[in-house]
Each structure stands twice: as structure tokens, then as C-alpha cells.
Amino acid sequence: MDELELEFELDARLANDCIVLGDFPLSRLLLMNDSQYPWFILVPRRAGSTEIYHLSEADRTQLMAESADLAETIADSFRAKKMNIANLGNIVPQLHIHHIARTENDPAWPGPVWDKLPAVPYTPERIEEIRLKINSMLNGELKLLSR
Fold it and tell me: What is the predicted pLDDT for the residue at 61?
């Protein structure tokens, strides 16, 4: 583990709004606690990173691989019509990338999901189903973290 990973701490807003599912080699995988959308977030475990260009070249490559694998898995698992992938950071400056599986019958389609409707939290049973489904489809690439 390098120093930047040792100093990594998840932003309080992400910790409050999301469920930690596990870790890829570089990134922590979060599930936004809003059952209206399959909405996942990758957070590279690198302290102080607010932009992709803050990462080393090797970390950029790893992040892109993790993002692509996650997007494909989510699209297949949730039958997405379109994957919305975004790195905004206007409110939460910590580098994080949203991966949202969109369908024509989701409550915000075709507009953005942000602040469209109040969040509807997942049940513990549904969280566990998603955790196991995602992990099995990623063929063990994701190290599950204890709840």
C-alpha cells in the first residue's frame, strides 16, 4: 500500500449517501442508497485526488479498466438502455465517478437523476442481492468489504 492509499478517507457525504460494496485494486465501489436507479460510484483510494489528471498514468489506466468493467457489468445486470458515467465533483470534490444504469421506465428518464426525486433507500436484503450479483459477474475482481 502506498502513502496516498494509507491516507485515503472517503468523503463524509459519500459515506452518508452510499453503501460500501467493496474494493477493486484501485477504487472503492459504492452503491448510492437510492433504489430508484442502479447507481454505483467508483472512488480511487488516493488521498487528495480531485481530478483524474491527479492520478499517476498507471492509476489512470487502472481506473479506466475498472470503470469499463463496472459499466459493462451494470449494463448487463440491470438491462440498461444507456449507461450514464460522470465525474462532476462540484459538491463533493473527492475524485469519484458515477455509473448509472438508465432505462426508459426509470423515474427521471430521459433527464438527469440528480435531485429529481427524494431517495428511496434499499432494504438490507436488496443490498445483499446486489452485492453478490455484482461480485459474481465481476469474477472475483471486487474484494467485498464487511458491512
Answer: 97
